[in-house]
Amino acid sequence: MTLREHRVHCLDKIYKKYSGESFVGYYQGRDPALLILDPELIKRILVKDFSYFTSHGIEFDEETDPMLAKSLFALDGQRWRDMRSKLAPTFTTGKIKIMVPHMAEVGQNWLKFLSKNVSDEAVDLKELAVTYTADAIGSCVFGVNYNAFENPNNTFMTMGRRLVGYDFKRGMKAICVIFFPEVVKFFKFEWFDRSLVDFFCNLLKEMMDSRKKSGQTRKDFLQLMIELKEKGSVASDNAEDEKESKELGGFEDSQLSSGKFDFSDVDLYSQAIGFFVAGFENSSTQISLACLELAVESELQHRAQAEIDQVLKEHDGKLTAEALKKMVYLESIVQETLRKYPPAGGLVRSCTKNYLIPGSNVRLEKGTTVMIPSYSLQNDPKYFPDPERFDPERFCNEDAHHKLQFLYTPFGDGPRHCIGLRILPHI
Ligand code: HEM
């Protein structure tokens, strides 16, 4: 891969050329890497033999780039296990449920804005979705509401765009991070400019101080992370909540957690910024692509609208977590959007100890990158007939997910799967 075309398309070409093989080697810049095509081997790497592939393979210097180095996505080894198991209880359905009113409020602002501004002219769907997700994440993670619909250039939006956006400088840094990590280390490159980091850290500090001073709390992620910082853990609400947090914790054996855990201010800032980055781009892209597909397929749109109207009628017009759960067709639309356009494109693992690929004589050296091509698998006619067709029916069947395990991985799989996956249906 040379970055002359999008990584996903490049991998898709290799995937198609070697269809039928179990795995195939390729070069990522100067380094050999392995593309996995066989679902059985994918299962091994993500789940059964996870202990050989615990890392996402991203290394940032803790001194120069603490916000990234300490984020859950970049952590590895025991520190990742400790952080994952401590953050898991903040991402259960029960905890997300209590944030639905914040998201519903942002949704209401969105509707007001649309009804005032609707016209026959084309709208930039992505831009609209970005304003929605910025407000939703601002409210749920940072505890702020800037009403980006009315004020799209507010500081939070501007800084948020800079945080996730790509310019020439960021592009050069990305090339160095992927292909020349030793250069990044030597020159101590920072991924995020200091001014950006300072803005988000100061905002979080201000919100935390003000809650402490007033003694007031709010039902949001920030409050849960404050609880984690002060008490060392977030309590489960009931047995169901406890079970879910164990599943989200990523590994079954509780002894794997070291028991020692210190959640500093910097850890808190790093996770909040990480959640912003993970949610902002992924969720807004999904919303805009789903809207695009529904605009093209008006029959699907009418079916979804009829379901929404019916469920809201049964819930006194209130958009609650229970009401959302009943919108099963809408959920299938979300799943089909994630199938056709998986935001991550593929899953990355770095081999953390030498690994002999079962049934072969190929030995992967520690440090080798392994790629699971989610986009290619999810658009392979062998597994998803007529893949170009946007067809939510694929997911209407209750056992669809079971049948598609390791073929449909928009949120990853195994102990390192996306910890925020339960949020998307609520957004
Ligand atoms: C459309 C929405 C989203 C998609 C498609 C998505 C997808 C993904 C994928 C593919 C991974 C890597 C999984 C793997 O390697 O197996 C991931 C990891 C992660 N995601 Fe998401 N994500 C979404 C939204 C979110 C949100 C809203 C949050 C937080 C608020 C979040 C937090 C994370 C974190 C912290 C990780 C790293 C987990 C770890 O390494 O233990 N994501 N996500």
UniProtKB/TrEMBL annotation:
PANTHER family: CYP9F3-RELATED, CYTOCHROME P450. Belongs to the cytochrome P450 family. It comes from Cloeon dipterum. It is a peripheral membrane protein. Keywords: Endoplasmic reticulum, Heme, Iron, Membrane, Metal-binding, Microsome, Monooxygenase, Oxidoreductase. This is Cytochrome P450. One of its GO terms (cellular component) is endoplasmic reticulum membrane. Its cofactor is heme. Residues 233-252 are annotated as: Disordered. It is found in: Endoplasmic reticulum membrane; Microsome membrane. Gene3D superfamilies: Cytochrome P450. The keyword Transit peptide does not apply. One of its GO terms (molecular function) is iron ion binding. The keyword tRNA-binding does not apply. Heme binds at C418.
